[in-house]
Amino acid sequence: MKRLGVKILFGFLFLATIAQAQNYSLPDSTHDSRTSILHDYEKYRHPEEKLMALEKTIDLFFEDVDYQNAVPYIDEFNDLAERQNDIYYKALGNYYSGTLFLSQYKLAKAIQHLIIAKSILLTDPDNPKTEYLFARIYLSSSACYQSCNMLPEAYDLVQEGLGYCSDSIAPMVYLKLNNNLALIYKEMNKMEDAISIYKKILPVLNKLKNDKNFKHDIEYTVNINLGQCYAKLNMMDTALVYLHSANEYALTNANKARYLAVIGSLYKNEKEYIVAENNFQKALNLLSNENDYTLTATINMNIAEIYYNMQKYDSALVYINQGIEYAKKGNELSEETSGLYMKAQILRKQNRLVESLSYMDEHKVMMDSLYKVMNIEELSQLMLQTEIKAIEKEYNQQQYIIKLEHSKERFRFYCLIAILGGVIVIVVLLLNRKRIILKNKKIKEEMLSMELETRNRELAFNVVALKKKNEIFTEVINKLLTIKENVAKDETKDALSRVIKEIEKTNEGNFWEEFEIRFKQVHSDFYQQLIKRFPNLTTNELRLCAFLKLNLTTKEISSITGQSPLSIDKARYRLRKKLGLEKGLSINLTNFISGI
User: Fold this and answer.
1) Contact status, residue 395 vs residue 163, Cβ threshold 8 Å
2) Structure pTM?
3) What does the pLDDT look like over 134-161, one tens digit per residue?
4) Domain boundaries in the chain?
5) What sign results for the dihedral spanned by CA atoms 108, 110, 115, 120?
6) For 239-258, what is the HEC assignment?
7) How many Å apart are CA 337 and CA 41, to the nearest integer?
8) 3-state secondary structure 184-203
9) What is d(CA 426, CA 237) in angstroms, rounded to the nearest whole number?
10) Topology of domain 29-127, per CATH?
11) Which residues contact 170 (CB under 8 A, 6 or more apart)?
């Protein structure tokens, strides 16, 4: 019976802390700030401004644990976010809806909205506000799984949430996630791990004390939970230290009463019944104007247990009756059943055996009902877990399909990149090949030009050489003519005349024939092109064109032909007329001939 009373008390306190994990905190009233924002909210007309104002409004409702009054604003927020098609605000709206359903213990709907919020947010990773919202989503999600007794899943969600915040970035969310983690350890009976988490929270709490928005009830929750953990480890002195610290931050009568109830239970376990009863009585006084029937029932039953252990059965009967009555008011079937069992034991000690048996029978009936309720609740919880897992499975399937589509898109994108890359490589190779061809062509042209220039120079040199030979022949002829005049015999004169004529004939023909042969070797189709375009050109004009093609000057041409420079200039002028260049004086005759 003693263990049962302790179990009832600690069970209630655990449920109270779970409620705080779901609601995060029980803050002071923020009605003034809320009224101010609501007043400003009415004047906003631009959708973006209105969304921001609604966000502030809903956050204040949530801080004030006033979820029901936030409903119309959440509905309007979701509608406006949908119309604006804003990714962040759509995700935030689903977070609000999920947290609202969590407060109403509609866990399947809560999980559904929170999963949607997360999936929407994953499409907008570059938004600087997403990390904070991710942390809040994981906070609410972990509370949902805790409430469904899915502790491993809740643990994973808390760890993921902690990856999005720290004690310097979003410290309040960081605190609440760690509080949820500690509660998970507590429920798994890992008290050392829970204590480690709570001690990590305490320095962060101290840093935030000067923040005007800081809620001291968080310090109350952390310290009272620490005290409970140490109590479970039978470290009573340490437990009392933290429990007394919790009392300093108890801002409401309900919290003060819970603190006194925990202290009373610890002393009761140590069999210090007078101190225990004193604390329980103080707690009852604080709850006199409260409607906390469950806690009141639990405290009355603990006092009844103290009197029972002290063998004060009449007093024990008074308090057990009060405990049963409050358990009925609070519709707490398990507390009522425990109370009936204790009452039967008290009556048995008073030798009121018939009444004792009667209440024992009633206790058995209640136990059957309780087992049925527990079975129904267990079945409901299993069904809820199954529904949540089905929601998760559906979400994972959708995510898999999305990832598959993204993989296909990435594959198509990579293929396109590869094709474009291949095209670019081919274009670059073609351009490079063209550049190389052009470069080779240019080099070839330069080489041909150099070769042509060299051959032109050789040809010009040969012409000069031929001219020199011609001059030598002329000089020989002149000398033979002088000899002829001085010879007396007619036969000798005739012979010399024949030699001179032969030399003159040979000299003239050989020079031009040899020049023509050598010139055509260098410029094979020059005469053909020239005659084709200008068929009226004479032999001398063709030769002049050949000299110009070799880029010879008037003086050099004069030296080769034996004509005066003036005659050569006149010949050039006549040639210009025949070539149709008399009107275009700006066109250089040599350049024109070179271009043919």
Assistant:
1) no
2) 0.60
3) 999 999 999 999 988 889 999 999 999 9
4) 29-127, 490-594
5) positive
6) HHHHHHHHHHCCCCHHHHHH
7) 51
8) HHHHCCCHHHHHHHHHHHHH
9) 82
10) 1.25.40
11) 131, 132, 135, 164
